[in-house]
Amino acid sequence: MPGFEVIDEKEKKAISRIFDEGKVFFAHGFDKKRKHYHVREFEQKLKNIFSPKMADVLCVSSGTAAIKVALKALGIGRGDEVITQSFNFIATVEAIVDTGANVVFTDIDDTLNMCPKNLETLISKKTKAIIPVHMLGVPADMILINRIGKRNKIPVVEDACEAIGAKVAGKYVGGLSEFGVFSFDFGKMITTGEGGALFSKKKSDGKNARMYHDHGHKNIPSLPRGLDHAGLIGFNYRMTEISGAFGKVQLKKFPSILGDSKKRYHALEKFINHKGIKFRSVNSESEPNYDTFVISIENKKLRDQVISLLNKAGFGTKNLPDAFNWHCAYFWEHIDKNIRNKEVKSCYDRLLKCVAIPILVSRSIKDYKNIASDINECS
């Protein structure tokens, strides 16, 4: 989660430059007043780095917006079903519900992500999309999930909001399926304050997404924006030029963010050796983005000790157990009063034992070695 930790004069200068170069904060038009199209440049840089083969990369106002735009581009609506996992951020589910579709929840596997075996049992004639989520930086089993989607002719929307930089079989997440989604909110590996991106494999899907996120604008090059035509009923999910400029600076810092996070993650992995603690599973073909280190502790007394230790040392916990109710479907009865089915309950029982240690580049590798040593001494 170190995007906000590395903000410095470079981001400040990038924003100031917008004021110096015409004060154009809008991503479209005003050609004579501007020297840059920051959002467009940010989109191209994201595409070049993370998935050059995807047809389109669209920057939007949030990761939530990116999921909603993907679903609308697919034409998903009332009466349809969208399958996602029970360990999730509520935003994914809100985006589904906002289209009028119904949510179907899978259980999770040892990676704490979508369980492919359970996924297969939940597919119906109403299933119009599958949304696996790479929670806390560890990839879901995308090889199996994509295979299931392809076999059933169901598009997969890869929610990589928490996993920018993670890989499966050497390829970055976000570019492995029909759609991929990133978030750039303040707690992510790179931040634009608020913001998100949508990767589209098909040119037609990318075109629909661009129209929907911008009030239906076709953006016909030969027409002034005010005379442009609407291709569909849309909404406003545009990213601002301020966010685009901010993102370009953060993207340059990302290799060092990823490298520094990896060292701290591996320090925990190497030095925590308590017999009562298990590590979260990572599939052999996957590489996390080292955002968060998750451990599982069966014994409640030991678990409470570790949580107290992390809080006193200033690390805290990330989502588990901090903000648990925002990241597990078990608590979302306001969405569906019958939500606590066997898949959701099973997920809840597993997550109840987990503790998520945030990886912070502002803390030294020595700090992580020390906290690992302190954890080992808990009884």
Task: Write up this protein.
This protein has 379 residues and is an alpha/beta fold. It has two domains: 2-251, Type I PLP-dependent aspartate aminotransferase-like (Major domain) (Aspartate Aminotransferase, domain 2, 3-Layer(aba) Sandwich); 254-376, Aspartate Aminotransferase, domain 1. It is 36% helix and 14% strand. It has eleven helices and 13 strands. The chain is globular.
Helix and strand succession?
A: HHEHEHEHEHEEEEEHHEEEHHEH
Query: Could you estimate the helical fraction of the residues in percent?
Result: 25-40%
CATH class label of the largest domain: Alpha Beta
How many distinct folded domains? Answer: 2
* Terminal CA distance: 29 Å
According to CATH, what is the topology of the largest domain? Aspartate Aminotransferase, domain 2
Strands ordered across the widest β-sheet: 1-9-8-5
The fraction of residues assigned to DSSP E strands is 5-15%
Instruction: Let me know the largest β-sheet.
Output: 4 strands, mixed
Label the structural class. Answer: alpha/beta
Could you name the CATH homologous superfamily of the largest domain?
A: Type I PLP-dependent aspartate aminotransferase-like (Major domain)
Please work out how many helical segments DSSP would assign: 11
What is the alpha-carbon Rg in Å?
21 Å
SS elements, strand count? 13
**Backbone shape:** globular
- Please tell me the CATH architecture of the largest domain by its name: 3-Layer(aba) Sandwich
Mean pLDDT rating: 96
The poorly predicted ranges are none
